[in-house]
């Protein structure tokens, strides 16, 4: 197949990719328009009694550990999770202690889940930067091949096809990144909502 690929279009893809300058110089690999907040602040999501005496103890309670895993999973609808919290605390002999234990587990689990998402986003950003550099250099090589006095059409076709696939993967990743950038905020909101349900039950 005879290939005439749009060189300006390919260069525009990498020029507008958003990987040249990070929004926050402290986090050069952070790709989102939302500011990077490395960890959820306990004070931002919990106004209940202090949790110092229950730190990490939730892991030793099989029932709480299983409930935390279920409530922290984003596939569990929020309303269902809130209902489970109410049922669990209403069946407890010590609502306050059980509530603190449960929230401590949710805080640890959702913070870890959130950190994993943040690390994944930065890892993909580094891949995207490498991909943008490769698209740019291959595009310039294609430009040279097309401008040669005696163009090698087979090489032009091979490189052109390669660039089409590289660009498609690059654009697909960019769309996924945009979607995943919303996930840390949704985790924050979930933790805040679950914490509020626990507080309401133990007050």
3D architecture notes:
It is a single chain. The chain is an all-alpha fold and 203 residues long. The chain has one domain (7-12, 50-202). It contains 7 helices and no strands. The protein has helices at 7-15, 42-45, 62-72, 78-90, 95-146, 153-180, 183-202. It is elongated and about 85 Å long. The model has no long low-confidence stretch (mean pLDDT 89).
Show the helix and strand layout.
Elements: H1 7-15, H2 42-45, H3 62-72, H4 78-90, H5 95-146, H6 153-180, H7 183-202
The percentage helix is 55-70%
Q: List SSEs in N-to-C order.
A: HHHHHHH
**N-to-C CA distance:** 72 Å
Mean of pLDDT:
89
Count of strand segments? 0
What number of structural domains do the residues give? 1
Number of helices: 7
Proportion of beta-strand residues:
under 5%
Compute the CA-based radius of gyration: 25 Å
Which structural class is indicated by helix and strand composition? mainly alpha
Describe the main β-sheet briefly: none
How would you concisely characterize the structure shown here?
The chain has 203 residues and is mainly α.
Overview features:
mainly alpha, elongated, 203 residues
């Amino acid at each position: 197949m005879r290939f005439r690929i749009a060189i300006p279009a390919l260069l525009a893809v990498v020029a507008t990719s958003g990987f040249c300058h990070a929004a926050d110089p402290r986090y050069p690999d952070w790709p989102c328009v939302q500011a990077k907040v490395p960890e959820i602040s306990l004070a931002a999501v919990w106004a209940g009694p202090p949790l110092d005496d229950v730190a990490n103890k939730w892991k030793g309670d099989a029932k709480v550990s299983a409930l935390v895993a279920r409530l922290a999973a984003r596939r569990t609808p929020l309303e269902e999770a809130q209902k489970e919290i109410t049922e669990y605390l209403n069946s407890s002999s010590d609502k306050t202690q059980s509530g603190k234990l449960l929230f401590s587990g949710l805080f640890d689990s959702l913070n870890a889940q959130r950190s994993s998402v943040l690390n994944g986003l930065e890892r993909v950003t580094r891949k995207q930067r490498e991909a943008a550099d490769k698209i740019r250099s291959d595009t310039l090589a294609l430009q040279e091949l097309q401008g040669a006095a005696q163009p090698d059409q087979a090489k032009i076709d091979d490189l052109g096809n390669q660039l089409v696939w590289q660009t498609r993967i690059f654009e697909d990743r960019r769309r996924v990144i945009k979607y995943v950038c919303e996930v840390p905020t949704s985790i924050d909101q979930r933790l805040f909502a679950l914490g509020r349900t626990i507080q309401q039950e133990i007050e």
